[in-house]
TrEMBL record:
InterPro entries: LysR_HTH_N, LysR_subst-bd, NocR_PBP2, WH-like_DNA-bd_sf, WH_DNA-bd_sf. Pfam families: HTH_1, LysR_substrate. Transmembrane segments: none annotated. GO terms for molecular function: DNA-binding transcription factor activity; sequence-specific DNA binding. One of its GO terms (biological process) is positive regulation of gene expression. Gene3D superfamilies: 3.40.190.290, Winged helix-like DNA-binding domain superfamily/Winged helix DNA-binding domain. The keyword Transcription regulation applies. This is LysR family transcriptional regulator. Belongs to the LysR transcriptional regulatory family. Residues 1-53 form the HTH lysR-type domain. SUPFAM superfamilies: Periplasmic binding protein-like II, Winged helix' DNA-binding domain.
Amino acid sequence: MEVFRAVMIAGSVSGAARLLFVSQPAVSKLLAHTETSLGLKLFHRIGGKLVPTSQALSLLEEVNHVYDAAARVDQFVDNLTRHPSGRINLCSSPSLALSLLPRLIKDFLAKHPGTKIHFHTALIQDIPQELLSGKSDLAITVLPIENPNLQTEALIRGRMVCAIPQDHSLARRSRVSLKDIAQERLILYSRTIPFGRLMLSAFERHDCDVVPVIDVPRAELACSLVRQGIGVAIVDQFSVADNVWQGIVVRPLIEEIPISVSLVRSRFGRLSPEAERFLSAVRAIFA
């Protein structure tokens, strides 16, 4: 499979040979053996070039899953053996990285200046893997995560709000309704992610038929589009806090759509002393 994957990535036997640091004849021989042993025609030989068959394309998808899983195992083992002193691996939902997390990190480092933090964002559906693989010690999410292998505790409640271009007619209102928004050019979270399903359910409960002009996976993308005057968006309040978006007016929704910021960690293993201190500091802030 290694030879097959290398040929698919490089697009040629010679390229695969360079990737694998072996000779071209060796690659050709192993590739032929792979086809014979699998009983599949993986490539057409056309004009001296290898053209993958539909079976090869399907096989590559499965092979990549195996390689990705192996890479996650390597990362997990690396995290088990390294445990660098004085370091916290922290991730959060993208919208919380714009204002809430920077404030939390600033307050923590003021009291623990020697601590190093690796901070990055991840979508909600990816956070369980972040924590269970050991890539992250702690996660702070804008929606709760239901997973039997994760421990979740609520920190603070919030709500969904409407982001509007500053020169839009809805910007003159103090509040807006879902029916108001449904008539506009709408930018919504993709319905394949938790936020998208949350909003779809809200519109359905209030008998609003919506067809978004653009669907996005993250709040900052929606806000960037709103700032260009493309349409209005519904985002969580934390993504538009602290006036981080010039040219956007934020209005509350008449219909309450609550959200809950949560602190999430794996049920397995022990946190480092630094991560425990950060955990305690966050709990104290929201107590």
